[in-house]
Amino acid sequence: MAAGPAPSGGRARAQRLHLSKMERVVLSMQDPDQGVRMRSQRLLITVVPHAVTGGDVVEWLIQKFCISQEEALHLGTLLVQHGYIYPLRDPGILVLRQDETPYRFQTPYFWTSTLWPAAELDYAIYLAKKNMRKQGSLLDHEKERYDQLHKRINHAWDLVLMQAREQLRAAKQRRKGDRLVIACQEQTFWLVNRPPPGSPNVLEQGPELSCCAASPVQMTKSSDFYKQEIECCRKALGRARVKSSVCLEAYLQFSVQHRLHDPMLSGCLPGNPWITDSAAYWAVNSPTAAAPTKLRVERWAFSFQELLEDPVGRAHFMDFLRKEFSAENLSFWEACEELRYGGQAQVPALVDAVYQQFLAPGAAHWVNIDSRTMERTLEGLRQPHRYVLDDAQLHIYMLMKKDSYPRFLKSDLYKGLLAEAGIPLETKRRVFPFPRKPWHASPSPALLPPSGEPMVAGGPDGGDSVA
Amino acid sequence: MATDGLHENETLASLKSEAESLKGKLEEERAKLHDVELHQVAERVEALGQFVMKTRRTLKGHGNKVLCMDWCKDKRRIVSSSQDGKVIVWDSFTTNKEHAVTMPCTWVMACAYAPSGCAIACGGLDNKCSVYPLTFDKNENMAAKKKSVAMHTNYLSACSFTNSDMQILTASGDGTCALWDVESGQLLQSFHGHGADVLCLDLAPSETGNTFVSGGCDKKAMVWDMRSGQCVQAFETHESDINSVRYYPSGDAFASGSDDATCRLYDLRADREVAIYSKESIIFGASSVDFSLSGRLLFAGYNDYTINVWDVLKGARVSILFGHENRVSTLRVSPDGTAFCSGSWDHTLRVWA
After folding, report:
1. Which among B214, B182, B184 has a CA at the least distance from the CA of B199?
2. Shortest CB distance from B98 goes to which of A243, A255, A444?
3. How far apart are CA A134 and CA A124, in angstroms?
4. Across the interface, do B74 and A210 touch by the CB < 8 Å criterion?
5. Does A243 reside within a domain?
6. Which residues in chain A have their CB less than 8 angstroms from residue B292's CB?
7. Does the distance separating the beta carbons of A230 and B15 come in below 8 Å?
8. What angle, 0 to 180 degrees and rounded to 10, lies between the N-to-C axes of helices A327-340 and A311-323?
9. pLDDT (0 to 100) of residue B105
10. Nearest residue to B174 (alpha-carbon basis) of B201, B147, B151, B148
11. What CATH number corresponds to the domain at position A81?
């Protein structure tokens, strides 16, 4: 809970960007020409000038920002909840009603950004005034807080009572209309800064996070920091850049290519599980499904990375490489991945295993790397670390990507998979009044024993009908 | 000596101005190759049709603000963490809670699911990142098997497993990111360069590379080489804290969400910001962003309780989703792109599709 003195660091100020933006909106609302229509509001026998109706506020927001009524109401409500607009009737509830309900704009004196943080002393005075004005008018939570404050700032209590009396006396000298308005303004301010229990605290920002700028030791902008920035900039100035037109064109291609595969844009068959309540889609597309769908097989042709990322795709690719007698390339690459992402303690053993299996002269699965890379790698193996095989791994990866992968896509094996692959039938939507389908549980991955190779042979993996 | 102090200050000031002028030159260089805007290129693409997304599941069970969530690779399970120290693992399809852990600290701002689905990581005001193996054994107390992996000198803001259960990448309020070996807790690499708290990170889906991007309170988004610990690229166009960064599915770009109420797209090959997603009526900061599977849609959760859906290519807002009753603090698209999950300060999580 954000309570107590607020940090004065940069983070705290930056976090209140939204407040200054709200203030700008509220100021435009009060523009005599372009703002919301102002009128005088009659409350019983008092007339309050410069009032607006909730409906007009919402209408103005709709026009100004070209947004829907729902969004305008939402934004308007936030303005009220932050105390920038307050209701004249029922000032105890900060809600925006989209009708003739009268509202007024909070005076900048009481803006959160002006008076923040709200001081305990001021709250005590406010509660004291309320108590004095009419005995028993303090709400339960206010009474509680009043008592707590009394205990906490007991030493200043005389000051509190004196101030309260003085402010009440000064208020009596004002016109009834002004008195009413000031009371509303004050009440709104305290509703925002000391919300009643149960109401959301809109000023809450998060835990008291110490901004790094506050702690001198770590993040002082030392000369090292600037030297690093300079180094980074120099390197950046030297880097090769690609024209925007080329880069942006790539996004177009990517999104067009993947459009049909994006369930949110094109739906998915047999049906989106979250909408149809059926887990069939997941069954049909499981990581070990023996009968991959057409879309899935098509995706393997998008990029080498997509093929490798799909365990079923990767397994078929391995089969293909076996036929070409270059399966050791993929095995080597997988072993290198295991090294790169493996546990630190396993590094020496893994490096050794990779060397024995793939790199040593006469190794069972010897990989064909160019001599320069091989030399560099063998040199590096003297001091094994997790990145020692990076060069070799990249070389083999590029080899597969530029050579084996295109051949795979042209192969009978792949073409056969594409032809065999089916398109699942759409699950019929259940129509009311049929009861909702029970949501089937699935075993947690944490329960299953660690899986080995994905199954490629064998029957299909359950699920609903596939065409 | 008084004169030494003066000398030091002069050097500091001159270094600072040198850095500023280099940054200026860098912006000039970047602008030279910027020959077209994204929305111009996107004129050739079809507009998106009517867009309807609804809450399909509501997960209730946290007793306080939900701060972070992550999906399991099985596309249905999620882990979520909250202000009161509770970390819950749900099967969000059935809405059943499967595991719950109470951390010894409050404000658990980061949580992540391990790629195997057998463990979770979390941390927050305890300045640590801890890994809990998931167990269904009723006799075992999950907290007993907890492993303390990362140690920072300030709060943990984000964490993520790399391609395996054995390495974790963390971001912290102490201004650094770090890569850790889970088994031993050994620090494998640290990343220095942010001038303030680091708030978020995301690993690149690159085929060969080992990079990740981080965003912080210094308004900078920085791309790092995991192997060398060096900053490879940096972008400084936001006007306030960057709360969330997420890579575009191709890995050639990333999006960011900030307290300045905008989301931006940065291209790594063009080395510049290429799009801003903003609207005058959007005043509150964006807390979390993620892309749909094809990268055409960008979902962003905001501090005004809403979720805005952006057309990444055309730059226009496609839809605004209401439902949460307090700020949206976390948002992730599911691994197969069928839905996205949002977590909020209203104590709930919602799955939308």
Report:
1. B214
2. A444
3. 16
4. no
5. no
6. 262, 264-265
7. yes
8. 140
9. 93
10. B151
11. 1.10.10.10
Number of domains in chain A: 3
**pLDDT per residue over A118-127, tens digit each?**
888 999 999 9
At A323, list the tokens.
Answer: 């036929």
Domain assignment of residue A178, given as a range: 120-193
The CA distances from residue A207 to A28, A448, B86, B124, in Å, are: 33, 39, 16, 10
Residue type, B23: K
Matching residue, tokens 């998979």: A417
User: What distances in angstroms separate CA B96 from CA A182, A280, A437, B63, B93, one per listed residue?
Assistant: 51, 19, 16, 16, 8
Length of chain A as a residue count: 467
Other CB atoms within a 10 A radius of the CB of residue A247 amount to 24
Which structure tokens are listed for A392?
A: 């070799």
Kindly state whether residues A280 and A381 are assigned to the same domain: yes
- Measured between beta carbons, the chain B residues lying within 8 angstroms of A258 are 249, 293-296
Q: Say yes or no: A129 and A102 in one domain.
A: no
B184 closest CB neighbour out of A70, A305, A344? A344
Give per-residue pLDDT as tens, A386-441. Answer: 999 999 999 999 999 999 999 999 999 999 999 999 888 887 665 655 566 677 88
Query: CA nearest A17 in B: which residue?
Result: B260
| Confidence check: pLDDT of A464 > 50 | no
A–B interface: beta-carbon pairs under 8 A: 321
* pLDDT of amino acid A219: 45
Token pair listed for A313: 């795709």
CA distances from B259 to A16, A21, A67, A341, A430 (A): 9, 12, 21, 34, 43
Domains and CATH numbers, chain B: 52-352 (2.130.10.10)
| pLDDT interval class at A164 (50, 70, 90) | very high
**Which residues is A44 bridged to in the sheet?**
none
Average pLDDT of chain A is 86
Chain A hits for B91, CB-CB cut-off 8 Å, are 441-442, 444
Residue A172 has which token pair? Answer: 């009596």
The three-state secondary structure class of B297 is strand
Of residues B105, B224, B112, the one with CA closest to residue B163? B112
A343 to chain B nearest CA, in Å? 5
Q: Are residues A324 and A400 in the same domain?
A: yes
Q: Per DSSP, which regions of B35-175 are E strands? A: 55-60, 66-71, 77-82, 86-91, 96-102, 110-113, 119-123, 128-133, 147-151, 156-161, 167-172
B224: three-class secondary structure by DSSP: strand
What is the average per-residue pLDDT within A376-382?
Answer: 90
Packing angle between helix A17-29 and helix A69-81, nearest 10 degrees? 110
For B124, the token pair is: 């927050």
